[in-house]
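Hey,

The postdoc asked me to send both predictions to you directly instead of through the lab channel. I've kept everything plain text so nothing gets mangled by the mail client. Protein one:
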Amino acid sequence: MRGRYTAMPSQELYESSRVSGLIAHLYDAAIDDALWSGTATRIAETLGSTSTVLKLHGDNARVNLLECTDNLMVSEREQAWAHDWHRKDLWVDRSVAYGMSRIITDEDLVTREEQARSGFYQEWLRHLDIHHMIGAVFPAADGAIGVLGIHRPQGAGAYRATERRQAALVLPHLQRALRLGQRFAAVSHAHAATLQALDKMDTGVLMVDGTGRVIQASSIAERLLRDNAELAFICGRLALRSPALHDKLTELVRGAMATARGQIAKSGAALAIPRPDRMPLALEVAPLRPAVSAFGEQRPCVLVFIRDPEAPIAVARLRELFGFTRTEGVVAAALGRGASLEDIAAGMGIGLATVRTHLKRILAKTGTHRQAEAAALLARSVPTVSNH
């Protein structure tokens, strides 16, 4: 027996497609937070409304306005006034009592008489040309209360059963999208913190694949590639100008990649890169084993560390740490780079006896007793200076 097919009326089909499009947008915005801008407008348009607000009410009356339509924005001088009314939002208080994650309208929360005498309506909502509301409150991260408020003016009429159903369809997806967005934001924050930490190191760090193709590079690594002719970046791959050294680098990368894949590889992961009239760069490789998730195993990679022993040491940081004068800081930084007293005197245009006097003061302030001991301490106490 054949089933019957009933065609959906064109208006219902149009409304269904608008709701589906809004739900898809919410998940896209969870992945790319730049898309959150304009989400409130899309929600308002989907539900035949003129304004929408998405906000979080936290502890100590703290309100975080996530997104709202342009017509809910107030001037700078009205910010404190607006924030006060957001904290005293009558609809939020009543909605929490009515029930979390339940679609409600203003008619469920207040009587017409209460509306007429309420300062919330008379002062705040009248200013925004808001009379009717549909929305919900829902649990959010860290104990906060999420608020979805959708509004329109009095002449537009009260919200109907159709719009309740539409809001009920959107609400759980909005909740999930917000949770996903918060998780992605946490991951993004951790990633940004990692990159900042790498940029604070005095070592350049590159992530490469088995062919030497650079996947990611710290700012220090980019500077080293740019400032040292012995290093090269060719067709997206890390290379060394010397063919013999490049072959060794290739062998090190392949060995580290084999280790990352769980195979047994040859030992040896360091390489000195000579430079004319300068101390050699120190290069080291290490395997980066893949992490396993429900979405599949990540690719194994190799980390390449490059350090310039002649990179300038942050003089300001040395002065903060040990209380050096400006000149002592310059002398200390040069000592940390391995410069001799004679080289320091020549470079600064001062006498050798003056440099020795500064050295005595540096030894006293660092609690060291020999020049070599002080140089080792100074070299390891602060990162080298980045051009960024």
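Protein two:
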Amino acid sequence: IIFFLFIVQAISSSCQKKKGGSSVNPPINPPPPLISEVNFWLTKGDQSALLEKQAIALNFGTSANQHPTIEIDAATTYQTIEGFGYTLTGGSADLINTLPFSARNSLLRELFSNDPNAIGVSYLRISIGASDLSAQVFSYDDMPAGQTDVTLQNFNLSYDTINLIPVLKEILQINPGLKILASPWSAPGWMKNSNSSIGGSLLPQYYHVYANYFVKYIQSMQSKGIPIDAITIQNEPLHGGNNPSMIMTSAEQANFIKNNL
């Protein structure tokens, strides 16, 4: 109440008239609107600001300095950018999908929407089968020891239908234009000379089967409402120490792509 009365008194005092009807103080023009050549968002280490859009004007000056100058020729184009993003691991999808809907929706909107304080991720990588950051090791066509499935009759998306695909569907509802890239950490163990999910290389007699494995994956994800924009042939192709993992040299990749995939 005291604060309100003070405001009223201040306004009343500023509106007193001189004789003849003129104001005691001339009218004050409002400050010009803030114009900035650069919009920027700030996150501080002490978390006092978390991806907050700043209201400070950042403008380019004209004074010379000794720093190198980078000039951009907007008339020349060398390449285009598909988008910006990161990997959504199976483990991350598991954790995200356990959140209550309101918390999960808030998180996914912060990451993938174009809201004022959102990151607006536009490209996402996922694993074909398990990665080394999944809770379980699996492919889409695991077989008992000594058995194979060259027709891929047992192919299924298995664990991805539990958490990964539901999370991807929610993300695509928020950002339908999101592009998804998929990478395998390993072919099914029975296709490899290690007969294991760890290390080893793809056996040449299964190159055509593995090519069909990629096709079935893309078609199966599409049937679930998840369009795959692109694939890579192998994650970390020269590192066979993770579980899962697979060695695939550049010559092997070229052979597989040219003659099978």
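Summary for protein two, as requested: The first strand starts at residue 41 and ends at 42.

Thanks,
C.
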